[in-house]
Amino acid sequence: MAGALDGATALVTGASSGIGAETARRLASEGATVALVARRRDRLDDVAAGITEAGRRAIVIEGDVADRGSAEAAVEAAVDRTGRLDILVNNAGVMLLGPAQQASVDDWERMLAINVNGVLAITHAALPHLIHAGQDSARGIADIVTISSTAGRVARPGSSVYNLTKFGVNAFSEALRQELVPQKVRVGVIEPGTVDTELVSHNSSAVREAAERQVSTRRCSRPTSRTPSPTWSPAPGGSR
Fold it and tell me: How far apart are CA 32 and CA 45, in angstroms?
């Protein structure tokens, strides 16, 4: 059955689980050939198998967007194997929460490497192909979509560097959107709130417990509730 994205190639980062995997499945269902990019090859193979069983096409590219060479190689592999690139979905990310005074600088650097530098590296590598697709594709347009978060609009205690990364990719995306209008490349940002994925699982047990308490309080609280708030408030998870 013909789909709206027949003939298009979409590259999805962080495609091994969560929002990334589901986005890849949806793009494939609309007819796109989907390049699945993430570090966990076994998970990618599972996602790809489900797509191919549904009669659609997926290719697996093991890679780490935090490494610029790996990000660039992922784009080139997708183009080499499909002949084009029409859609980029920047979904890979990590959310490591906690008060700044007790935070690990290594955790901060990891978030910057994946959430910011990864978006920059793979977007830069994809731009020439996307601009070309915008000019010659049947749709007459190409797309960059970045999965950000409500944490890119509202800052909260305990998520300072995560907030920094999401505010940053929002600003980058808006500037890029303005630049690429003449090249027929649309740039969009999606800002989920709390989503039931494995994103919070990357945190320490104390952080996970605080996040679970907060979600439980939001679901069950009433105006008369006396449930105490945590000393810091975990940011909503935007992805993955």
Answer: 17
